[in-house]
Amino acid sequence: MSDSTGTGAGPRTTVAGRPVVRRVAGHRPRPVPAPGAPAPQWLQVLAAVSWRLLVVVAAVSLVFYATAQVQLLFVALFLALVFTAVLRPLVDLLDRVMPRGIATAIGLLAGFAFFAGLVAYVAYSVADQWSALQRQFGQGIEQITDYLEGGSLPFVIDRDQIAEWVANAQVWVQEHSGELASQAAERAGSVVEIFTGLALAIFCAVFFLARGTSMWTWFLNQLPARVRGTWQEAADAGWSTFSGYTRGIVFVALSDGLLALVFLSALQVPLAAPLAVLVFVGAFIPLIGAPLAMVVAMIVALAANGFWAAVVVGLGIAGIGQIEGHVLQPLIMGKQVSLHPVMVAVAVTAGTLTAGILGAVVAVPLVSVAWAIFSRLRTVDPPLPDEDEDPLVEHVGERGDGVPDEEGAAPARV
């Protein structure tokens, strides 16, 4: 059965119901894809990568959702690991001369004593300098008001405008007193949660310090024997990075706080000790904490000692930040946390958007641990050649005659 047409494509016939194109002189027929032909290679690769990316995104989203539902538990376990990483060297040292349980108790008491002493010192400094600070703060506000009224700024702000702003603020507080009270009640509930999480963290840290190795061995024994080596290797890389980062950042924060205390005390800035503690706390928040501490210290110096004192304080704390970034962190942490500054900035931003200040604090150590585990378990392919090298030449001796050079290099192979 055949069917001829007069179109430019040439005569067509049908065989078993399927069109067959016959070649005609001077005519190039278009290929007709067979039914059920596979998709192009590029489309198959794109589809394979896409569904794998969707699975990864879904898994990460599930982890974030589950963590948000048990945020208090996550924070408690994170703090327990921090306490363990910081106190583990002291407990291991004491374990050489006394039972492990007693060494753990002494280590935890030492950490608690340090924290309590720090809080007591800050409270004493605030109470001792509060009256002088009130007087200096009032004088500083008066100087700032005089400068706004008759300074060299392109605009003028008089006392009547300032009084109007204060009155508007008082009206706003009165109108929103109910909302402020409810927020205060919520904060009170948050305080209870904080103490609950802290108690859970200390409880877990006791067992991590005293029986951490036995607990990890028990966990490995629950896994199939063929995967225990991989889990152990990943755990070694992750814990080494996390403990190195934790101990390093604590030492760096202490150094920043001591330098800030000496610097602010030399300039006779009020509340030097609390401001130094603020610098200490800010060191735990990459990219954000140090600028915030610097701004607060500058405001106190501006209100108490004037404009130029605030400028000097800002430059001094910025210098301390430079010492931290270029001297202390490379010297103390070394290569245990090898993240590019761009990755640090992205991690801190993502953590802040996801969980606020808490996310900014935990983002960098978590990303560092994930990268350390990935780097340990991955299989690295040969690197790409440099732009100045010929990718076809593996090695060429200096003599270029196929004979090894003086350093024992292999003959040239092209």
From TrEMBL:
Q: List all membrane-crossing ranges.
A: 42-65, 72-90, 102-127, 191-210, 245-264, 271-289, 295-321, 342-374
Family per similarity comment: Belongs to the autoinducer-2 exporter (AI-2E) (TC 2.A.86) family.
Q: Where is this region: Disordered?
A: 384-414
InterPro entries, sorted: AI-2E-like
Query: Which PANTHER family does the annotation name?
Result: PERMEASE PERM-RELATED, TRANSMEMBRANE PROTEIN
Q: Where is it located?
A: Cell membrane
What membrane topology does the annotation report for this chain?
Multi-pass membrane protein
- List compositional bias (Basic and acidic residues) regions by residue number: 392-402
Query: What is the predominant subcellular site recorded for this chain?
Result: membrane
Q: Which keywords fit this entry according to its UniProt record?
A: Cell membrane, Membrane, Transmembrane, Transmembrane helix, Transport
Q: What organism does the record attribute this protein to? A: Cellulomonas marina
Gene Ontology BP term (one): transmembrane transport
Q: Which GO terms describe its cellular component?
A: plasma membrane
This protein is called what? Predicted PurR-regulated permease PerM
